[in-house]
Amino acid sequence: MSLREAFVSQRNTWKRWLLLVLALGLLLAAPATSAQAPANAPTLTLHLPWEGTVRMPGWTEVQVVLAATDTAWQGELVLTDRQQQLTYQQHINLPASGRQSLRLPLYVAEPGIFTLELLAPDGAAVIAHRLPLRSAPTKARFCVAVDTLKQLAPRTENGCDSSLLLANLETLPETAMAWDAIDVLILREVSTTALTPAQREALWAWVILGGQLTIVEGPGTIQTLAGLPPSLKEAARQLSAGMIRKVGTGELARVRQDTAVGAATTSWLGDWRARRVPAVSLLPAEISLNA
Fold first, then answer.
1. What percent of the chain has pLDDT over 90?
2. Single pTM value for the model
3. What was the pLDDT predicted at 16?
4. Strand partners, 46
């Protein structure tokens, strides 16, 4: 071998080593990605009541819907906390094209990371979700409005330190303790016949233990009353618009809607911090609460 050939051979060897080192470096620096779910793995839909708001320490409810493909599937559903300690585990056995809905009570002592995983029979995680939890101040007044028209806007002038607008009742918790996160529930033009028996029981328990339920008068009031717990429905029917009555340690109110923010009104949510506050205000349809 000539001197030139030896030099070329050595240079090529060094180039191969250099490329190998660069490739290894890129591999180590690349962000980790989770393994793709097998084609026959079911889909997992996750919801939390009040969009994940919890008064800590307190309870929430993890709402899960599993839907199988055209292949049957078996595995485990597990919920772990930040220390990887098991909080919940259940065997899942879905027939082909089957569905399963679960509502899991969860106690949250302090801010932290909770992970919901669907495990294959071999223990490998095929789906993983971190729970999007957020903390609500203990003493802040948290109001939730359910309005199919998405116009109701409880704000600070309504005595609400923070508020949430929902379009339907689907994510209202069935776990009674999870209702402790909110102070006021306002219903407008929503059919309560969609409530499950467990949701009705939880709503009733929340009101008699201090919750405030307000029903906004309108064309759909009959539907709003129809699916309430029997005792609440009867009490609401005996109220005229603009009236409030005690139910246990809570309150039930029927109010007329204001026509504009800040307008004079005879409808009230009641007393809050020793001052009367207007019941509701309506936003124009094009304005979003998230704007």
1. 54
2. 0.77
3. 56
4. 64
